[in-house]
Here is the input.
Amino acid sequence: MTQHKTTPAAPDGAGTDEPYERRWLALGVIAMTVLLVILDATIVNIALPAVTEDLGISTASQQWIVTAYTLTFGGFLLLGGRIADFWGRKRTYLVGAAGFAAASALGGFAQNEAILFGARALQGVFGALLAPASLALITVLFTEPKERAKAFGVYGAIAGGGAAIGLLAGGVLTEYADWRWCFWVNLPIALLAIVLAIPFVPESKAPGDTSYDIPGAALITLGLASIVYGSTRVAEASQTNAAEAAEANAAAMAQGSTRMVSPASGWSDGPAWLFIVGGLVLVALFVVVELRTRNPLLPMRIVLDRNRGGAYLTSTLVGAGLIGAFFFLSLYFQQVLGYEPVVAGVASLPVTLGVFISAGVSSAMLPRIGPKPLMVLGGILAAAGLFTLSFVGVDTGFWQLPFPGQVLLGLGLGFTFVPLSNLALVGAGVHDAGAASAMLNATQQVGASIGTAVLASLSVAAISSYTADSLASGANPQDPAVGLAAQVEGYTTAFTWASVLLVAGALVSAFLIKATKEDLPEGDAVVHVG
Here is the structure.
């Protein structure tokens, strides 16, 4: 990996060899909004039934509560990263936090689905400014290897454990307050972050040419949004087809027929393929444009570096597998074990426990042994955790498998995210810190979207197959035990394949990443403008 050893500048722009003295206070402020964005991906999920009932949102439309956010967030990430580089990372951070707070307030006051969907889309847009700006600020503030490892340890703990905390917060707020507080809770956090960021977070921006690549921005925004939407359609089609097949099979059994209908795969949805293929074509055109543009939105040197490219591919696979943990585990706790939302949220906390432990250990070990061993170990541990969860049953006790499986998963995520975040960003240069940060966020988002589609399809197919076999063997279609057992079959199938994705991520780390502790740069220049 190419080393970049340049000297950070003081907040007032005066040259100095000393790092920014209030960098740890700045990290605390930035961590608040990093948690905010990550929480928002899961906090609303628990509240979905309450939201749809209160606003009268149809089953066909309720997916837009999630999709409106993921589309804009995933689509605008790379543009948001470049805006942070060129316009100023602190300025972009402040605008992102303020906009995210305003959109959250709008969502909390929504009286119909149109306003709610619009608010969620705005949350995604401002989140796409906030997330890469936050990570880029961490990158340029911490230039000494051990300090940078500790800073990314904080980020890794939040990235790995934030989703579980979001499930808990969503359950508590929905059950004891109102679903609207799942949006309003963002306001005090964002406003406090803004107030503290003004004095404590220094401004920095990219030196040199800061002209925007408008054609590249349009192509990648539309391309990523199209891929995310197409993948979402696959997941929805899988669930819809399964529900229709279940109704048809129940009706057939009631009439004495033993001929069972298998649901069509979600991948047979024509429009979904149109969006996915169209998105891939746009991304390919984006690459062509970037190779020919003087000041590209995403310089190909960021991606084509072997270590960073390996980190981004690992990030995609981890994002794809991780969705299987929180989404299907939450369903298992509530729909199979019968936990209330709050209890389901508490039951998800062992992941956070594991992340906090391993993130601290990983940040201490990273400067000593380098990123590769930690990333391989993390992938194996996380895969082992999901594989453990694949053995849960209808009446499995929490302490038997869910607890140890989640702790293993959390340990693996902490060991993965800390070196992954470091490796994906270091050496990119101060000019490209925001772009490299956005690329990391984008790979996780696209991976999560594709992973949702793949795992949902596999889960639905397993549920339908189990149900059809049970009914064909004479089981009572009205027996709730049959339905519960079928659900467990679907969830455990998803856990198994999610573990395969994480093993694939570990293999990518093992074979593609060559960086050692000596290759980790000592830092990149921090250019302060105020």
